[in-house]
Amino acid sequence: MTTMKNRTSDIEMIDEEGGEEALQHEPNSTMENKMQVHADKKCSTNKRYMPLLVMNYLMLFVGSISSSLLAKYYFRHNGSSKWVSTWIQSAGFPLLIIPTFLPYALTLTKRKPFTDFTQKILMLSIFVGFMLGINNLLISWGVSYLPVSTSSLVLSSQLAFTLILSAIIVKQKVTFLNLNCVILITLSSIILALNHSSETSGMTQKKYLIGFFCTIGAGLLFALYLPVMEKIYKKVYCYEMVIEMQLIMQIASTILATIGMIWDGGFSQMKEEGEKVFDKGPKIYWIYIVSNIVTWQLCFMGTAGMVFLTTSLTGGICATALLSMNVLGGVVVFREAFGGLKAVSTVLCFWAFCSYVYGIYTNHKSEINKRNESSSEIITITNHAVTH
């Protein structure tokens, strides 16, 4: 009985002192102990869970749609550099330094940055960063050769790949809920691709095939990235470590892109493109560069946070659902036509996404009810034992 009371006191003390900060200064605390306390951050009953989830989805939403619209704007006004398009996807990594070090510098947290950042996690972060760099290059090549509708269709295939690879790598259960969502969103993208008013005019078969296979490769790599990150995040005990890993990944990806830029003369090409090629002038060109750097970081950080807080499949569904939302962005910003096929595609996508989110909500609600029932039973048994 004394042991149980002591344990209860310890838990109350940890909860009162702020969880991670109390554990951080425990001399005998281990990664396993920290993971036990912080595992609740991924549970909907934790007070930080929902604000983090909403914040990360907003970052993904704003980053994905904004980067897509900026990419359209870039190519509409004579931008064409594949290496520039690749480099700006990761060059915003210095932005991640702020949320990594500022909270500790302002004494908002007692946890030092990169605490428990093991050599294994470092090497995995670098490896995944290089993988993302290759993925960014493949996306740039695909977008430069394929029409938007075709590239959206091919990229949406990553959702089916994500479901398969998640089932293999992280043992994701294939249920009616997630399978139905994958089918509906994929069907939405297929319908969208049927509306191909600007399909392949002026494009050689060679360029079309290069763009097609590059986009397929990008979809496969992204589908592999999501469950791999979910598996790695199982060893990560707090959201702060997710930001730190993302910083390392983006640095590795930028190094790869910078090597390519230097080798292919990308930096001089960027300067020439801004001064002579981009038809809106150098000022607007550099505003575009900076804006796209920021939006890509929002997109990647939002995706990473969604995978950490939910699952790789949920992250993939959220990212793919935004492909159809990009169509609405094009209608609003570029005054693109919004015909019947686009309307049907958008409705299907919205329906699939909402049904999936509602399914997640009902599952979380049932888990909370079960947990509350279990807690009530334990309290009843404990009280009964104390009285006797």
Automatic annotation (TrEMBL):
Protein keywords: Membrane, Transmembrane, Transmembrane helix, Transport
Signal peptide (UniProt feature, chain positions): none
Entry's localization field: Membrane
Cellular-component GO terms for this entry: membrane
Coiled coil: none
Keyword check for Phosphoprotein: no
Similarity remark: Belongs to the purine permeases (TC 2.A.7.14) family.
Annotated PANTHER family: OS09G0467300 PROTEIN-RELATED (PTHR31376), PURINE PERMEASE-RELATED (PTHR31376:SF63)
Protein's recorded name: Probable purine permease
Origin species: Lupinus albus (White lupine)
